[in-house]
Design brief:
By secondary structure, the chain is α/β, with parallel strands linked by helices. It has a single domain, classed as Aldolase class I (TIM Barrel, Alpha-Beta Barrel). Helix content is 23%, strand content 34%. Strands 1-4-5-6-7-8-9-10 form an eight-stranded parallel beta barrel. The protein is globular, with a radius of gyration of 15 Å.
Length: 165
């Protein structure tokens, strides 16, 4: 199982969310270097700027992918998603997204609730938000690598656990 650090990026700066409050951590690139030094193999980034339609942080991801794997959540515009994929960023989508147009299948991640019952065709990995043993078993049988949040306890084998940094 790999350790995945979660940060929020806004205006090229990294934040952590604790109890609904954003806490400033520092430059996104500097924090990513610390995350790597702390033994994390992947950073899950929620891009606050992308959620409001801005591509402000693309150059940050270009730098990060030189030294650590990243997966980015928040982009919905096709041109921005293609740019992320060209940088070799993993992209997190809602499960209803049409991903068949992207050839980088190993970089496509679905984020779902444990009771999701739709198709996950085209996605390589699945983040289960409120995972339980049953949902982990169900989606594992589909051949998907499972990622859960670290506060969730399970006896089932998962590929990765996301924790706030």
């Amino acid at each position: 199982m790999i350790k995945i650090a979660q940060i929020i990026v806004k205006d090229k700066q990294a934040f952590s969310r604790t109890g609904g409050v954003l806490r400033f951590l520092g430059s996104a690139v500097d924090i990513a270097k610390k995350i790597k030094d702390d033994g994390f193999k992947l950073i899950h980034i929620v891009d606050e700027d992308a959620l409001s339609g801005s591509s402000t942080n693309l150059d940050v991801y270009d730098t990060l992918t030189c030294f650590i794997n990243v997966q980015v959540e928040g982009f919905s515009k096709d041109d921005m998603i293609k740019k992320l994929l060209s940088l070799r960023c993993r992209v997190v989508f809602p499960p209803e997204a049409v991903v068949s147009k992207y050839s980088e299948k190993n970089l496509l991640v679905a984020k779902i609730k444990s009771d999701y019952s739709g198709s996950l065709d085209g996605f390589h990995d699945v983040i289960i938000e409120n995972a339980d043993d049953f949902s982990i078993q169900k989606f594992s049988k589909l051949g998907k690598r499972i990622i859960i949040y670290s506060q969730l306890k399970t006896k089932e084998k998962v590929w990765g656990k996301i924790s706030n940094y």
